[in-house]
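Hi C.,

You asked whether I'd gotten around to modeling the 232-residue construct. I have! Everything is below, sequence then structure, no commentary in between.
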Amino acid sequence: MINVKQFRFGDNLGYLLCGRQKAVAIDGVAPDEMIAFLKSHQLTLTHITNTHGHNDHTAGNRRLSERTGAILIEATDLRDGQLLPLEDTAIKVFLTPGHSNDSVCFYAGHYLFTGDTLFNGTVGNCFTGDLEIFYRSIKKIMALPPDTVIYAGHDYVLDSMNYAASLEPDNDAVKRFRADYAPDHVFSTLQDELAMDPFLRMNAPGITAMLKKKGLPCETEWQRWESLMTMD
């Protein structure tokens, strides 16, 4: 059994996964606040890792490691299916390249930490330029249970909901998610994403109709994904 503590630095989001006595840091974006939390809750930080190697996610690694003695595991050293221990919970690594070549997600209990692969209401930029490998990564996430809680690497909720509403103006799930948005605890479930995130709704009739109206390829799922990712 783990508990999750979310930390914010600007729009960046980082996490402590906490057991009874030990904790693991994912994207230590607020190292001082994380260290204070660990101390106040008498937790020992055992490992530090990242969803990918971009500096806005890794900048706190050194300070966290120096202050706590925790072991740093670089994203590039992680393997698909690898298990990171946290007391009686195993944190499973999913390699999810697309946003970056070293992008990974961490799955623990019913929580998924997605970094810049999947945000709440949208997906990350495909900086690798490989839309096919990004598509496969998103499909891997979509196969998880619908009650999976999505904890992302940034809070882009309001902009994401505005964009989703522009594509599907009659989608009530978009309206509900925006109304429920709370900046002090940013999350969604996979069920939410499948209902309101246009990039996971590539098979929804409304998205297909929108793409067809724009004259974009939409005959296959892959064409709809590619059209969504590349349209202006």
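If it helps when you're writing up: Residues 163 and 194 are 15 Å apart (CA to CA).

Thanks,
B.
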